[in-house]
Amino acid sequence: MGNKTNAFLVAPSQRKTTGNEINVITTLVASQMSNGLTLNDAINSIKIQLNSIGLTATNNLLNEGNSNQYQILEQNILTLIASIDKSNANFLLSILSSNLSDYQSFILAPAPTESAIQALIIALNKATEGKDFNDTGLVEYYSDNGSSFNAPSDYLGQDADYGHDKNSGGFLFTKLDFNGRPLKDEAEQWSCVKDQRTGLVWETKSDDLASPQFKDKLFAYQVSGKFEPYQEDIDMLSCSDEICTTEDYVNYLNKNTVCGINNWRLPTFGEFYDIIDFGIKEKDFNGDVYGLSPDYFPRQSIISDLASGEVWTSTEFFTEYEATKIPHSRVILAALTRGIYRGTTYPVNIYSDKVEVDMGASYQLPIRLVSEMESVK
Fold it and tell me: Where are the alpha helices (DSSP H) in the chain?
């Protein structure tokens, strides 16, 4: 705990029973993890940012947070935490920890004034403006008599009474052409979909079996320099186009600047889950209800190693079995998006190239990439 009223410091989840350091550095790392980064990626992000503002940071960062060089940083962040709305603390700290150089004048100031504190809080809150989330899509009410668009008097306070569901059906999408230009809702051909709430742009898929963008094309998981795929996962795929891994596909979309975008990436679990519409009733040819709006995402993945509708995400998942999982493997969080069980989540244990050979294949899944609209070229 810090020495400021209502201030706190935390440690990132590491599944450790002892030896957890708690200081300003672990708090910044934990804030990065709350934004979807893995532990190693969060450490690396904070390390790079600390070095950029003139503070020394090594690969042993989590054990160095009590160093004297971080005393001013810790004091100022404790002062900030004590002053912000605690209901929004995680979000604001996530923004701060992702942009330390932007707030360097405050976090390294010997004694920031009250006006400087309030100015930073205003700046952090402003950074969240325009960032929103979708709702569930549940716009109907339910009672013993079935479903209706009218609220029953005996079952009050249902999902349809709140948020975007009540005001606009839960979602607000715009179709984009191949160059990233907006199209009318009635357009019959489009290449991407912009989520007007989050600002994210999603690729559309293809029904063409020969296209790398085929909706049910499977990929082995890869993040270059961090996680290389297991050979048996590659062998399970027919990669006549040499686009076998998630990294291959990311490079393919970026090279072709689909919708004018050249920084396509895997979505985080939260980003993908946010576009699941739980109010959809339309069904596919298998009789399974869709998970994404078919008006904007008519071609959705069906085939899967798991159940139906999962795609790869970038979010690493820490489980209670972390200590006993296969060395050099990774657990990724996935969600079932079709049928009555849409929204069910799965921890997917995948093997890297460092896993012992002859373990058998792990998993291959379809993919749907995302990008920020600001990156449209």
Answer: 24-34, 39-52, 71-83, 89-98, 104-107, 114-127, 163-168, 231-235, 246-255, 269-273
What are 137-146's contacts with CB under 8 Å, separation 24+? 137/165, 137/169, 137/170, 137/171, 137/276, 137/277, 137/278, 137/279, 137/280, 137/293, 138/165, 138/170, 138/278, 138/279, 139/165, 139/166, 139/169, 139/170, 139/279, 140/279
Beta-strand (E) ranges in the chain?
A: 141-143, 146-148, 173-176, 192-195, 200-203, 329-335, 345-351, 370-372
SS3 330: strand
Beta-carbon contacts of 26 under 8 Å, excluding residues fewer than 6 positions away, are: 9, 10, 11, 12, 20, 62, 65
pTM for this entry: 0.71
* Contact between 223 and 246 (Cβ < 8 Å): yes
Joined tokens for residue 259: 């919708």
Quick: pLDDT tens for 196-232. Answer: 988 899 999 999 999 999 999 999 999 888 889 999 9
CA 126 to CA 119: how far, in whole Å?
A: 10
Segment 18-49, tens digit of pLDDT: 767 788 888 888 888 877 677 888 888 888 88
d(CA 211, CA 367): 13
**Rounded CA separation 151/141 (Å):** 6
